[in-house]
Design a protein that fits this description.
The structure is a homotetramer of 138-residue chains.
Chain A: E1 4-7, H1 23-42, H2 46-53, E2 55-56, E3 59-66, E4 77-85, E5 89-98, E6 101-111, E7 113-114, E8 119-120, H3 125-132
Antiparallel strand pairs in A: 1-4, 2-7, 3-6, 4-5, 5-6, 7-8
């Protein structure tokens, strides 16, 4: 099994008075990594999906463990695997780690949606293989 | 059983190109409602906890169902109940609804933490009763 | 001369590690006050302008003095006056103050824009009088 | 004269329902570029300044022209020059451009501040030369 990896930077405007990342900012990181995954791993710029193909991936469920705080100046590694691949739904798992120590473990389920009708639609086949490529062994 | 209720406003800067609330903003709403809960229900301003009592409540776990999108201009009702009350840990449940239709169901677990040592500390007794007051029946 | 007044709340997620409001958040406050102005003073909900009337007010110029920091827990008073009222352009001035001490003085110029063509369009007459009502004496 | 250049990415969560960058997000970009400038041009990570040297650079004045909208998926080039270099104050100018077309021209004045006393302090000499290196001709 393979995974998609990238890195994140905890900036000044992301941390709270205790110097640790305010948790809603961690969801911004998750979305940022998701956009990188589409562009660099799947091979399509995320905005093209929305503006040209008129499909989107609204989040329907998230479950997150915050194991260790991220601090101002940290540059955690982000690692994404696919934990579920249905007809329309995609479950992705994001690990953010600092020097091998896990900080965040986020499981996010999105559903491929036709933005014209706002109903679910099958994940196009040409994308499916790219998610298979980062699938976690069962 | 009782609950704490307040309302949220989905503003211009919170919505994405599809006109629906970008999900990291929904976590901003959850924190905003949490600050309101401390001030109006528990009876202490949240910043006093941090700056004067030197305790904080880092999030350790979240599990959220996004059932229906929030759109620009919506003013969902937020309803908070307590689903777990341990020695240090507090589990709160946030329902955001529009005219009775549930949009978001978020369960958030935080741990009362001594900010000087960054270790867990018992929830002060004078706060406990206020969380009991919004406890869900088992 | 009159002014539109409201208040702002400096929340946990808005402040930086030094405990003062991160300046991009201050521009969020300005937009929040602007939305309140439309709703409570002009008498139209801002999202109706965009979604139904298909006009918007992109910012073309801003000039801001940051005189005194806003801190976590502060609740500054916001006061808005109109400093320029052209055919399409509106210049608004936002003062944020804590107990009479000025913290922020922001002058923001927006242009009434037809969102279908993205070109300037005259400010509708029924709105003009409401901006005249908060106009600063020359 | 030289300038510091980097690039920005207009992400999904930064744009409003009209598909253009919500202006407070543009100030996030300015701060992001500023952090890059410190790290890659001046040669010190911004968080080290704050946490170790205990100096900061609060913004005292900003003046910004928004000439052309930034849209979802855009990757403007950012170019920074120094327009003022006083004992403690630094005036920086940020140009954001798309294929040579200027979108944003922001002049931001910050003051070197001792975070222990919150009073202005001279810009350390070892940093001064790096700002001279990107100084605009008068």
């Amino acid at each position: 099994m393979s995974a998609f990896t990238t890195s994140i930077q905890v900036r000044f405007g992301h941390v709270d008075p205790a110097g640790i990342a305010y948790y809603p900012r961690i969801f911004d990181y998750v979305h940022e990594v998701y956009e990188e995954l589409w562009e660099r791993h799947v091979g399509v710029r995320y905005y093209k999906l929305l503006l040209e193909e008129r499909i989107g991936f609204p989040l329907v469920h998230s479950e997150v463990d915050f194991r260790s705080p991220l601090r101002f100046g940290d540059r955690p590694e982000a690692r994404v695997t696919c934990v579920h691949l249905g007809r329309s739904s995609i479950g992705l798992r994001y690990h953010f780690a600092l020097e091998g120590r896990e900080c965040v473990d986020a499981r996010m389920t999105t559903v491929c949606t036709d933005l014209r009708t706002m109903t679910s639609t099958p994940l196009p086949e040409r994308f499916r293989a790219r998610f298979e490529a980062i699938r976690e062994a069962p």
